[in-house]
Fold each of these.
Amino acid sequence: MNEIEEYKGIEKIETPGRRHGDEIRHRPYENTGIEKRVRYDQRGGIAGIEKIETGIEGFDMISEGGLPKGRTTLIAGTSGSAKTVFAVQFLSEGIIQKDEPGVFVTFEEPPEDIRKNVISLGWDVAKWEQEGKWVFVDASPVVGEDHVIAGEYDLGALLARIEYAVKKIGARRISMDSLGSVFARFSEAGLVRNELFKIAAAVKQIGVTAIITAERTQEYGDIARFGIEEFVADNVIILRNVLEAEKRRRTMEILKFRGTSHQKGEFPFTVVRNIGIVAIPLSGIELKQHSSTVRISSGNAELDKMCGGGFFRDSIILVSGATGCGKTMLSTGFAAEAAKNEQKALLLAFEESRKQLFRNATGWGIDFEKMEDDGILKVVCRYPEAEGLEDHLIIIKRVITEFKPHRVVVDSLSALERVSTIKGFREFVIALTSFIKHQEVAGLFTSTTGDLMGGSSVTEAHISTITDTIILLRYVEMFGEMRRGITALKMRGSMHDKDIREFNIDGEGMHIGKSFSNVTGILSGHPVFSAPEEVDRVRNLFKEA
Amino acid sequence: MDKFKLRLYITGKTPKSERAIANLKEICEKELKGLYELQIIDVLESPQLAEDEKILATPTLIKDLPPPLKRIIGDLSNSDKVLLGLDLSPVLDNNQGKEDGR
């Protein structure tokens, strides 16, 4: 923080002719050999702290550009909070994406274990070691060997080894994992802390960007054990693995980045096979999607008419209704409609199996099998319980990115509700809808209401403000018979039919008929019939007024 | 008595390093005269050797022979601890003579 002030004097003397991006070196302390580099911005002033992109998906958005360059960041977390994965991934992404070599200092696990453990995340450390892009500094405990302390000592050898490793491969990144075990091995905590402070200072001096991991004993409490945060307090990131309603939920929080900005609060993340950590930046999502005026058909001409000519091309449509009232049929028709225009549709099913879906579609004269063979349809069926919500989100995103559909159907969104907490579900819905909107595709989500008649669901409560269109399907009990009603509750940016219409389902699909003009209370689940004269009387009453 | 093979790792010519060398030489001359072989390794000059032996702290004394392998960390100013580490019975002051080995 103070650096900007520190350089003011020098800047005044040397400013003329300096351009953006120029870098000058000077020696602020005489006869020390310590060199400081100053970068200048467009105005010839001193540029703020630069960041380097870590390459960890989502993290660079949360951190607004990555980790502060040339500085040390503390990653603190309880046991099992993916600290080591973060440390390894920081180096891996550096090598994969930027060809920046890295040094991994391991205090806990032997290198052999780390090599093996990260294979499943898609990182071939052994190969990078051969290519001279990755070097281990093995500071893990030697098995079966104890030591005797006989007098004063320091950790000079460790520092010398780190410096040697950095020089050997020209490292730009360092990960140190994890500091707690150093304290366990040397009883003099004060001395160890002092030595680690020296190492952190030396690393800063070399100009590499470093992360240090440290243990915490509880999810909400002290930053780290042994007062480690005191010497790397410039930047602190906390990884959490909280048990909430019998489910583990991982989050990361940037507690502080000294002298530079970042997003605040906890962000969910998950560890994915072959990828590693993927963070889900919620507040980082901007409302900047385009909105199209192009209409697309819902697959049902009558429904299109109710919506004033069809859904908008890049809108989110929520179809809500009780079980068996036609949601899956509506979404099947919506997906099949894409094929007619030679567009691609993605169907994500969380309630029914492929076989059931295909059979149902055949019943309505739609051949899903052929459509899949033609490459215009992709059906993905998963059990909601198969993964956590964060993992579902990552998988859905990946499928959408790869398949590039024009329409996405999620049947049903509310099935996913039961695998998460309410908070987690809300975050999932927001992240998914904003992702779909950014892809500029039409998304149709179904939501099952708990009550057979009327009612609403948690899904609707969370999603209704994000959606552009809401279609309600409701059962209407009439003279000992269950009939079905449909209404367009909301149609953003367009006129629409406000009536509640009756519809039937037969072998060809959905047929929308007349409105229930003499019934009130359908949406609340308590239909009441009025005589036609009464309805007319009420209408006229309002006309006069 | 078996011959002792010792390696002392130091980081630069610091006072701590000098003290460790002096203390070690004194102990060896007293206890192991003619029976030891000592190698001093400066980690700053040969960091790879420190890497191979996974040396963290300096000064570190490694006793290769006779087995078992032992590591003694520090400037070796506590000679009782050093003797303990070398599996030699500590010599107590004056007339008390030698204590039995552990």
Amino acid sequence: MNTFEKLQAIKNQDLKATDNLESFLKKIENNNSSINAFLTINKDSARNKAKEIDDKIAKGANVGSLAGLVFGIKANINVEDEIISAASKTLEDYQSSYDATVIKRIKEQDGIIIGMCNMDEFAAGSSTESSYFGATDNPAAPGHIPGGSSGGSAAAIAAEMCDITLGSDTGGSIRNPASHCGVFGFKPTYGAVSRQGLLDLSMSLDQIGPLADDVSGMAVALDTIVGYDKTECTSLNQEFPVFTEVINQNSEKLQDYMKDMKVLCINQFSDVTDDHINNIIDDSVAKIKNMGAEVVDSSFNYIDLCLPTYYLINYVEFFSATRKYDGRKYGYKIEDVCGEEVLRRIEMGSYISQQEFSGKYYKKALQARSLIRNEINKLLSDADLILGPTVPKLPHKIGEKLEPMEMYAYDVLTVIANLAGIPAGSMKAGEYNGIPVGLQLQAKPNGDVKIIKAMAALNH
Amino acid sequence: MIIIKLWLLFLIIGGITIDMKCGLEIHVQLKTDSKLFCDCSTNYKEAPANTNICPVCLNQPGTKPFPTNEKALKNALTIALMLNCKIDKDITYFMRKHYDYPDLPSGYQRTSVPIGYEGDLNGIKIREIHMEEDPGQFKPDFGIVDFNRSGIPLVEIVTEPDMHSPEEAREFLKELIRVLNYSECARGEGTMRADVNISLEGGNRAEIKNINSIKGAYKSLKFEMIRQKNLIKRGVEVKQETRAFLESQMITVAMRTKEDADDYRFIPDPDLPPIKVQKKQLEEVSETIPEAPHNKVKRFIEEYDIDEESAKTLTSELKLANAYEIVVKSIDPKFAAMWMRDELKRVLTYNKLDFKESEISAENIIELLNLLNDKKITTKVGQRIIEKMPKNKNSPKEIAEELGLIGVVEKDEVLDTAKKTISENEAAVSDYKKGKETSLNFLVGQVMKLTRGKADPGETVKILKELIDN
């Protein structure tokens, strides 16, 4: 049963919202202690909400577009009364006093929020191992990292603990764990989803997006969270497509859709990627060719520039964003209690933003970013999509010690979309030795719907 | 040896005149209903501590600033234009200025790049003008931080080091506050916070922080000038440092030296995309800005041929200046200036009112001055009427009628009254005859009293003298 069908079933009361919730609660009860996808679960409020929805439907009252769907939320998105720890000791006691804009929208549409998902501390990581509350296991490849930083959100979907989760993506933090856990993950165009209420990692790169195990779930979630927010200055004030309308068509039409597509495969992307991953991506390329897409080999010459540019910006903005954790309002001073990656980023950010280096690092990074953005937009100016691997290598085993640069290398293919502000999604392309391999689709700004369509077609 | 010592003594006692340079950074709150980046109210003084707050102005984890308050931007632009600043027509954006202090809930203050620059006020050059957000208020005595003030828009005005004495700085600040009052865009001296830069020839620059009034600026400069002079005279180096002004003691104390000066690590705020100041918006502001007082003074002197003192007094308040310009359409400008500068201002000062609060209209003033011009009342009566005018619904004519003050007493009546006064005050008359001039004043006063001030004082003196002398 896909998400569209489930929503209909709940509306018809063939499936009660309460039963949908209880089956998830049972799975969480059985498996969360070993998977550690959720940091907190709020059974009472979720049960009350589910009952309220069932009652409304029984009375024939209107319900929202998400009525009865169960959501897990990354622990860096504010949900009123919940502990929003960002998986850090710094905020272990921070109980939020307000709902992020995306949470308001989910609540308005009768989505049920079940709990907060594990993540890398302050989203600064690609493995979810840096959580103060312990690592998350990969349900699709037990013993391996689920990726990160939204590892809890991806694992919750892979372990069928809820319908949809929200993650945040700064350099791949939604797409990377989606790839490792074999689920759908999507980072919208920068500004399409309000960041109001999202804890900062790198403000000019952060974007909230959904994870789910089917495309209709992604579309339903996007229709709710995408949209202009007048309280957030980087929010785009424009019309957005209705994602559910676009993919809610019969299957032949979806296949036809690929016929008009011009899809780029970037040589440099496969150059940096392990062969067994490339092989699986090649199968997908063959599949879309069969559907009638025009596939063109192309070149992106700035791939070596992407990681340094990304990390310089990330360090400086993260340093700035963490100044509020000075120990006065939230209990701990961040530098006193955080993990080594968070500390590294703060110290690097503090170092390179010094007045004496003004213009040397951060400004250069911003210039490099413009260059990368222009180049990507040029590539996409006469193409619909870029298709390639999401992550260049398979997930390591939990606890395996990686050097920082090895860890950063996971992000090389995903940071581009954040630097360029373009939409990008990841879906499962296949498996290697039982470990999921993700395929990444990228489009020009506001081309979000093309990616969702292509995902629907490829998944067909 | 003795000669050298004497020479040194001379230097120390006699003093050498040392040139002083002073520049100011003045912060004043902009007049808006809501804060710069959220919808919270700005009446922080009336509200109980920590009630005008929301997650945004508390900078709770995850919050983002709302779009910049447009009224704040408009107010800052108005002030910049009134100070003859150039306006960057392109874009303005906010920087994050990082520092660690309990009143700063985000760990950085948002401060705009200059929205106006290269202005001037009475010959003092304005380097640049910024918008900023106010931090909260750390109150160690109460053990709290009150965030009601957090996020209230400020305008920061930075001058060049063009002032050469504490007096000059004080004059500049007075004039600046007057401009701000004229602009109706800022909250005035009560919300002022200033940093003062001062350097003396042969010394380094000291920055004094924590100044909250014009008087404080003056006193701190006086203190600092003497302190630095004494150091220079003794041959001690004046360090480049930041000092704090202690208002209670009117002294400055060292805060930190250049070596451990803060590095604010400025970065453009990623949450606030650059704002384009629209040409249309700028034109709107330009069309509606009030003429700055110093420009008005110049115009009054030229247009109405009045002296500088009068022009300054008349422009001390925008509403007063406006009233004057209405009055002079039907009254001689010099005559009007004299009455409005001397008598009206005296009455306002006595009642501790400004002109606006007095509710006196230009029409009232015209009526009063016409009564005087037409010799329907005497100067003395005019003065009495004007004393009754503040917050009075009745017109001057009605006041005069009510008090029975209309009309100038004819010479015959004055003569009769004078005779009566002389016969009833023999002691005073004889005193005067003995040469006691003040006794005559007493007698004049008696005549004025009996005629209810309707007698002409000059005429009365003449008549009394004639009567007594003959």
